[in-house]
Amino acid sequence: MLHDELDRIADKDELNPSSLDMVDKLAHALKCIATVEAMEDAGYSEHDGMSYGRRYAKRDSMGRYSSESRYPDYDRRY
């Protein structure tokens, strides 16, 4: 479906700014899909125990990520 839309845009005689924006978005979507397919072919699973970002970081009582500094005065407000 994304390739069909790109073909329709390519068949036009002239490209305008909105068409170029659409081409950019379609190309980005195709790239993301190709990346996911490549990861699946390589055996990646989101349940492999890999963590991203602060998934296991400590949180305070309000659910915010806590900041544990090595420097005692780092979090002090003046």
Task: Tell me what you see in this structure.
By secondary structure, the chain is mainly alpha-helical. It has a domain at 2-41. It has two helices and no strands. It has helices at residues 2-10, 17-41. The protein starts with a helix and ends in a 37-residue tail after the last helix. The mean pLDDT is 77.
Topology:
Blueprint: H1 2-10, H2 17-41
Helix pairs in contact: 1-2
Q: What keywords describe this structure?
A:
78 residues; 2 helices; 44% helix
What proportion strand?
A: under 5%
Mean pLDDT level: 77
Low-confidence stretches: none
Largest sheet: none
Report the structural category: mainly alpha
Shape: elongated
- Measured between the Cα atoms of the first and last residue, the distance is 57 Å
Question: Helix count?
Answer: 2
**Quaternary assembly:** single chain
Radius of gyration: 23 Å
- Report the order of strands and helices: HH
Question: Percentage of helical residues?
Answer: 40-55%
Total number of beta strands: 0
Q: Would you summarize the structure shown here?
A:
The chain has helices at residues 2-10, 17-41. It is an all-alpha fold. The protein has a domain at 2-41.
